[in-house]
Amino acid sequence: MRQLKIFQTCPLESQKIKTCSVNMTSQKNAVVLFKKSEEKPVAYEMSGEVSRDSLVRFIRTFEMDLVTEYNRETSGKIFTALVTSHILLFTNKTADDFRELHGEFQSAAVEFRGKVLFVFVDTDETRNGRIFEVFHVREVDTPAVRIINLTDNVQYQMQADEVTAHNLRTFCWTYLDGKAKPKLDSEPIPENWDKGPVKELVGMNFERVVFNEDRNVFIMFYAPWSAACKELLSVWEQLGKVFEDHASVVIGKIDSTANDVHTVLLERHPAFTFFPATSFQRIVTYTGERTLEAFVQFVENQVELAKEEKAKEDEEKRKQAIEESEGKEKEEL
C-alpha cells in the first residue's frame, strides 16, 4: 500500500480542489484529482518529470464535467477552457428522448476527454438564445450536433441523422483527423452549376435564382448523408429532364447542411419548395407524394397558378400606371 499525495501548487480559478492524502494501491506515482460530482477519483500517471503546465492542463481539463451544460454559470469556463475543440448537443431537456440522447452523448465523451469538450445546450432555455444565433440552430433543427474550433471559429455539422454514441465518435475522429467538412454560409458556386437538368445551387446564388419573376423554380433541400435524400436524388434528376426544355421552369437542388438559407424554414430533410414566377417573393411548400408523377403534376399545377397570379399582377400594374398618368395630367392643368 502506498500513500499518494494529492496537491495543488499553482493558483487556479476552481476552489473545489483540495489538498489531502489518501491510501491507494498503485505501482507508479500518480496525481489524483477528486471531484464532488464524480464517485471515483481520476488518476493521472506521471511519466518522468511533471511540469507545472502539465499539471495545470490536467486539473483544468478534469475539473470540467464529462458533459457540461451550457448556462450563465458555466459559460465562462467553457469559453476559457484549455480544450478549444467543442462539440455541442442542442436538444430540449423536456423531450421524451432526452435521457437517451444525453446518455449517448455522455458515453461518447469518455473517449475524447482532453481532446474535445462535450457541451449540452438546452433549447428550452430562453437565455440561451444568443448561442442559437451563433450556430444558426432553431428548435425545428433539434436534436442537432455541432463542433466548433474556438481558435478559428469554424463550425462543423455531424453527418448523420441520429445522435448515437457511434455517430458521435465517428464525427469526433473525422474532425480530429482533419477530414470533417466545415459548415459554411455558402459553398463556392460550382463551375457548371447551371449546365445539367438539375441546377446545383449554393448560398451565394440561391436567392438570385429562386426569386425570379420570369422563372418557376422547384428546389430540393437535401442532406448528403440522409438515406431518404439519396433515394430521391435519382427521381429529382428525372424531374429535371422532364422540364429541361421548359422555358419558365427550373429544377434545382441545394445541400442545406453546407449552405445557410435563411429565407426558408426547413423542418426535415429532404424538403421541397416551389418559388412561383411572380413579382412577389412567394414560397409554396410541397408535402405530397415523393414520386416522379406527383412532382410533375405539382409543378404543372403551380405553373398555371403562377400564370394567373402574374396576369393579375400585370393588370394591377397597368391600372396603377394609368392612375399615375391621369394624376400627372390633372396637376399640369
Structure in words:
By secondary structure, this protein is an alpha/beta fold. 33% of the residues lie in helices and 21% in strands. The protein has eight helices and 15 strands. The strands form four sheets. A six-stranded mixed sheet has the order 5-7-6-8-9-10, covered by helices on one side. Strands 11-13-12-14-15 form a five-stranded mixed sheet. A two-stranded antiparallel sheet has the order 1-2. The longest helix has 41 residues, at 292-332. It is elongated. Residues 1-24 have low confidence and may be disordered.
Topology (elements, then pairings):
Layout: E1 2-6, E2 20-24, E3 30-33, E4 42-45, H1 52-62, E5 67-69, H2 75-79, E6 85-91, H3 98-109, E7 117-122, H4 129-135, E8 144-149, E9 154-157, H5 165-176, E10 182-183, E11 199-201, H6 206-210, E12 216-222, H7 227-242, E13 249-255, E14 271-275, E15 284-285, H8 292-332
Parallel strand pairs: 5-7, 6-7, 11-13, 12-13
Antiparallel strand pairs: 1-2, 3-4, 6-8, 8-9, 9-10, 12-14, 14-15
Q: What general outline do the C-alpha atoms trace?
A: elongated
Please report the total strand number as a whole number: 15
Q: Which consecutive residue ranges, at least 5 long each, have pLDDT under 50?
A: 1-24
Radius of gyration: 28 Å
Number of helices: 8
What gap, in angstroms, lies between the N and C termini?
Answer: 111 Å
Helix content: 25-40%
- State the order of secondary-structure elements, H for helix, E for strand: EEEEHEHEHEHEEHEEHEHEEEH
Which structural class is indicated by helix and strand composition?
alpha/beta
